[in-house]
From TrEMBL:
Keywords: Aminoacyl-tRNA synthetase, ATP-binding, Ligase, Mitochondrion, Nucleotide-binding, Protein biosynthesis, Transit peptide. Belongs to the class-I aminoacyl-tRNA synthetase family. It is an enzyme of class 6 (ligase). It catalyses: tRNA(Met) + L-methionine + ATP = L-methionyl-tRNA(Met) + AMP + diphosphate. GO terms for biological process: methionyl-tRNA aminoacylation. It comes from the Eukaryota. One of its GO terms (molecular function) is ATP binding. The keyword Transmembrane does not apply. PANTHER family: METHIONINE--TRNA LIGASE, MITOCHONDRIAL, METHIONYL-TRNA SYNTHETASE. Residues 439-542 form the Methionyl-tRNA synthetase anticodon-binding domain. This is Methionine--tRNA ligase, mitochondrial.
Length: 593
């Protein structure tokens, strides 16, 4: 395992200003680029987004959910190259009263509305390079079979009973609410109207005979599950919020509606007078995708990671785990929760006319550019803000100038006329700072760079494991800045290939910079797949050399051969990322829908 001990910089230049605090044993070449022996490399992983409601066109919040899941999935594939080891599902939620009402308002049959809007989600995800292995629609026959089987299991285990439900129902949120979760707000006419305390959406009083799930039996089992696994729900504030909810009474849950009131859904088996509650229907999609009720699903379910928005946390962290426990199954392995996107400081809303069209953003900022922005700026713990100038400033700074400029510098014909990965000179840059001799040119800051990039893959992997993709990108960006500082500090354009004194150091500077770029390109694959492919192709890195298992940074520094040394760079791939500030004339702050 690579061990890089801490050191202190006492000055601005010169290896003599490096004070070792411990043995700086960089000579120990790591056969494990992640810094640990990862026993999960052969494990399966199953990632899911929520299935998205088809009552309206997709917005950037939907895309953000899909991108988070996509990046987690792609990073896992870098660790476990076998395609059979990873599954990733997304899809559309197509049943419920809200769909029924939206279709009627549009003068369409519910199936027509579902086909139309589901196609919009599928097109968006194709254009955004979402690498899902399954797109499920809850109107599919396979899903209907899975839902009805799941219902039958709950009924056979004595967890469903028929009773009179009387209380508030929010059609917009498709959920039942106790009196404590309802407040009154002035309506259009000025009269006080009942609304959901959490969402602000209107609610109506409902009284009907439904099937009811014995949710109250699961309060303590849910508490034991969460207290026994602090990472079950991430980030921690959401884990804490669910435990707080479970301190309150957990009433039984109505899990069906009268078919005369809600006909657009899956009928209760053996009772056509009732339609299965849309949330029970929707949640079972996670099982449908992995083959439920066939035995195949059992090998995938324990590896499940749900990626959800905070607005649907209660459904995924209380109702769903309780239903699973009731059916004799375990709760999801992980529930990753993210917050929402605002636009210029305001909540996205049709009434405000500030809903951002994600397809317009993909076209305006490029696919990789907008992927990078959302994942770099999106912090799961709190809401994040979108506005056009912010996107341009970030992408120009970090992708066009810092990363693209670094690649251009190191591959320019004037500096690298041979178009190769130059040789690394161990005399110019010895593996231990104390060994720098008369011909050595490496400075303290250069060893700091090597240390930072050597530990970057492990750091990035830890951030992914902790659902902090934004921190992973921040760490990469920091190392890109350090590498640019390294190149600027040693100014290879001032060195001469014809000079026997300059040439070894010039080659070493380029070699180190190209090795850093190879690490950056590899680690950016989950977030900016096309840009990373362009970068790695320019460096001459083949498709079989792009996994984390092959990411051995700067092997010549550790006394090992480098497979890239002397290899020709790949063909010119053009500008890595285009400058966006040239297009400010047609930049608009928000896309009105």
């Amino acid at each position: 395992m690579l061990r890089i001990s801490a050191f202190r910089l006492l000055g601005r230049t010169g290896a003599s200003r490096l004070s070792l605090l411990e043995d700086f044993s960089l000579r120990h070449y790591s056969s494990d680029p992640l810094g640990v022996r990862d026993d999960t490399r052969d494990a399966r992983a199953y990632f899911t987004t929520p299935i998205f409601y088809v009552n309206a066109a997709p917005h950037i919040g939907h895309l953000y959910s899909a991108l988070l899941a996509d990046a987690l999935c792609r990073h896992h594939r870098l660790r476990v190259p076998s395609a059979a080891a990873t599954r990733f599902s997304t899809g559309t939620d197509e049943h419920g009263l809200k769909i029924q009402q939206a279709a009627a308002a549009a003068g369409l049959a519910p199936s027509e509305l579902c086909d139309r809007v589901s196609a919009q989600f599928q097109q968006l995800f194709r254009e955004a390079d979402i690498s899902s292995t399954d797109f499920i629609r809850t109107t599919e026959a396979r899903h209907r079979m899975a839902v009805q089987h799941f219902w039958g299991v709950l009924k056979a285990r004595g967890l469903l009973y028929k009773g009179l439900y009387e209380g508030w129902y929010c059609a917009s949120d498709e959920c039942f609410l106790p009196e404590a979760k309802v407040t009154r707000q002035p309506g259009p006419s000025g009269d006080l109207c009942p609304v959901s305390l959490e969402s602000g959406h209107p609610v109506s009083w409902t009284k009907e005979e439904n099937y009811i799930f014995r949710l109250s039996q699961f309060r303590e089992p849910l508490q034991r599950w969460l207290r026994g696994d602090p990472q079950a729900i991430t980030p921690e504030p959401f884990h804490h919020a669910v435990l707080q909810w479970l301190e309150e009474e957990l009433p039984d849950l109505s899990v069906s509606r009268r078919s005369s009131h809600l006909h657009w859904g899956i009928p209760v088996p053996g009772d056509d007078s009732q339609t299965i509650y849309v949330w029970l229907d929707a949640l079972v999609n996670y099982l449908t995708v992995i083959g439920y009720p066939n035995a195949e699903f059992k090998s995938w379910w324990p590896t499940t990671s749900h990626i959800i928005g905070k607005d649907i946390l209660k459904f995924h962290a209380i109702y769903w785990p309780a239903l699973l426990l009731g059916a004799g199954m375990s709760p999801p392995h992980r529930i990753y929760v993210h917050s929402h996107w605002t636009v210029c400081g305001q909540k996205m809303s049709k009434s405000l006319g500030n809903v951002v069209d994600p397809r317009t953003c993909l076209d305006r900022y490029t696919v990789d550019g907008f992927r990078y922005f959302l994942l770099r700026q999106g912090v799961p713990n709190w809401d994040c803000d979108y506005y056009g100038e912010k996107v341009v400033k970030l992408l120009d700074s970090e992708l066009a100038f810092a990363l693209g400029g670094l690649l251009n510098r190191c591959t320019a014909n004037r500096i690298n006329p041979s178009g190769t990965y130059p040789a690394f000179c161990t005399t110019c840059f010895p593996s231990e700072p104390g060994l720098v001799g008369p011909s050595g040119r490496a400075q303290a800051e250069d060893y700091a760079l090597v240390s930072a990039v050597a530990t970057l893959p492990k750091q990035v992997a830890d951030h992914y494991d902790n659902f902090q993709i934004y921190k992973a990108l921040e760490a990469v960006s920091s190392c890109v800045r350090q590498t640019n500082g390294f190149v600027q500090r040693h100014a290879p354009w001032k060195l001469n290939w014809e000079s026997p004194v300059d040439a070894p150091w010039l080659g070493t500077v380029l070699h180190v910079a190209l090795e850093c770029l190879r690490v950056f390109g590899t680690l950016l694959q989950p977030v900016t797949p096309s840009l990373a492919d362009k970068l790695l192709s320019r460096l001459g890195v083949s498709a079989t050399e792009r996994g984390l298992g092959e990411l051995h940074f700067l092997p010549r520094f550790y006394g090992h051969p480098c497979p890239f040394e002397g290899r020709r760079l790949g063909p010119e791939t053009g500008v890595l990322f285009p400058r966006l500030d040239q297009s400010r004339a047609w930049l608009v702050k928000t896309h009105k829908t």
